[in-house]
Amino acid sequence: MEDCIFCKIARKEIPAEILFEDFDLVAFRDIKPIVPVHVLLIPKKHISSINDVTEEDSALVGKMIFRAKELAKELGIAEGGYKLLFRTGENGGQEVAHIHLHLLGGARLFEEIRPV
Ligand code: 5GP
Ligand code: ZN
User: Fold this and answer.
1) Global pTM value
2) How does the average pLDDT of the chain come out, rounded?
3) What is the domain extent for residue 19?
């Protein structure tokens, strides 16, 4: 996708602190971290939201979760625990329309989700 900011990061057209890359995925630090360890994992394939994931994408999404677990270990937050988050659509608070898995850790993340 031409104008997608995360596709641009995957193509190295805009800089990011990349922590991991393979044929399918890129992981990089969030530009505005909300916790001490805040990493985003994206597929190189443009998928706009979890609503657009097809059955053929399931292995790819599984790889994202596996890689998040590996990165959590490498970044020293596996033992203490962490959160994995996909925001989806407007009510989910999704701002970038290219699926990304937030890996959040390094702090106690106990906040409750309350209806507004
Ligand atoms: P969302 O609200 O869509 O789940 O999260 C989007 C995330 O992407 C936010 O945490 C935001 O800080 C991060 N982000 C947006 N633009 C950029 C960017 O250009 N570079 C990096 N590294 N992170 C970004
Ligand atoms: Zn994209």
Assistant:
1) 0.96
2) 95
3) 1-51+86-109
